[in-house]
Structure to design on (389 residues):
């Protein structure tokens, strides 16, 4: 049994902590006192049923604190799961907090290896090893879905580690493989190659979303049955049935920022495909907005701000962009979002009673379908063809 410290309690950090606590003693560190208080009471701050289950199941192996110093000299491995938002002004991820923690750990506990699970630019891990005169900072990308983060941790599609020290990477990989409930393929590479795998993976998913959204836009314009066309296209085994459900556009924590970061990595390298994915997503949101505006509704009811069912994330939500575009045409907006605690959002009324919301809306705009919409399908606009995420 190892002693592991996870720094950061977002989707990745909390899922990793619950996963590894099945076989190890795990401490979670975060500066957010409210989140740490909830976790210490086995209350999940994330909408993930598996995380809620394992916080209680593994409570004897899980400790929570707001003080990094509580873990010093008491851990065998540090895992960094800190957010790295994309800074448009600098055209790159904001790695300032990540770098600060690495600096602090190097000063306070220099002999303990560090595993980075945050998404970072290519060569970041190598730069950290060089800057802090280390060779034991390892990178491993995560591929977790919101709402199913812990499930994906227990049943990973693959485990990837990038390091200058193959023996160290193998040792850390074994910790994750032992906790997994399947038998995932384990891949090893340089740190920069592992960093690029994460960026290319998410950019490919964004590209696929954009492709089927463009297909759906054509179907809407020509009154084709998009479902039949998508099923026909995806019956080719080389294409497959994953990530083919149209939406109002991709958003969330990862796809927008990872695609932008990948574009910045090309710099002087010839490219056009990745850039066009971002452009396609913007055009899709504009197209959906115009479809609603053309109907000249008295008002528009927005059914949920979340990116998908089971998510509590509004970050980079395509629906938010559509709200802004519709409001520019002076069309009133009302929003149904039970996860919002405030009465207004973007200067529009927020409602938490669905029946009142549905009765008040002239048209209901739903990025993702839910069966409670069934009585109101005649005035519901959605492109959730397969009614799945």
């Amino acid at each position: 049994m190892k002693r592991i410290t996870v720094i950061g309690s977002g989707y990745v950090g909390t899922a990793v902590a619950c996963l590894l606590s099945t076989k190890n003693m795990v401490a979670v560190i975060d500066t957010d006192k409210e989140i740490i208080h909830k976790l210490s009471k086995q209350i999940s701050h994330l909408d993930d049923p598996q995380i809620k289950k394992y916080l209680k199941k593994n409570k004897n192996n899980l400790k929570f604190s707001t003080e990094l110093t509580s873990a010093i000299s008491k851990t065998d491995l540090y895992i960094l799961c800190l957010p790295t938002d994309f800074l448009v002004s600098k055209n790159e991820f904001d790695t300032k907090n990540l770098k600060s923690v690495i600096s602090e750990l190097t000063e306070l506990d220099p002999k303990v290896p560090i595993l980075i699970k945050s998404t970072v630019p290519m060569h970041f891990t190598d730069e950290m090893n060089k800057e802090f005169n280390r060779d034991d900072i390892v990178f491993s990308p995560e591929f977790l879905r919101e709402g199913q983060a812990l499930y994906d941790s227990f049943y990973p599609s693959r485990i990837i580690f990038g390091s200058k020290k193959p023996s160290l990477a193998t040792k850390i990989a074994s910790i994750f493989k032992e906790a997994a409930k399947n038998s995932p393929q384990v891949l090893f590479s340089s740190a920069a190659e592992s960093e690029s795998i994460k960026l290319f993976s998410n950019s490919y998913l964004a590209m696929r979303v954009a492709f089927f959204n463009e297909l759906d836009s054509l179907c809407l314009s020509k009154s084709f049955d998009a479902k039949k066309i998508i099923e026909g296209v995806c019956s080719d085994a080389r294409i497959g049935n994953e990530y083919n459900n149209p939406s109002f556009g991709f958003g969330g924590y990862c796809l927008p920022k990872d695609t932008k970061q990948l574009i910045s990595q090309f710099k002087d390298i010839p490219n056009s495909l990745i850039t066009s994915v971002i452009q396609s997503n913007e055009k899709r949101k504009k197209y959906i907005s115009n479809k609603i505006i053309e109907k000249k509704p008295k008002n528009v009811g927005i059914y949920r701000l979340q990116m998908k069912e089971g998510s509590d994330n509004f970050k980079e939500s395509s629906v938010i962009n559509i709200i802004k575009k519709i409001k520019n045409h002076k069309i009133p907006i009302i929003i149904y979002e039970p996860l919002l605690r405030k009465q207004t959002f973007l200067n529009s009324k927020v409602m938490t009673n669905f029946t009142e919301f549905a009765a008040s809306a002239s048209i209901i705009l739903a990025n993702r379908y839910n069966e409670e919409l069934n009585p109101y399908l005649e005035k519901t606009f959605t492109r959730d063809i397969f009614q799945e995420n």
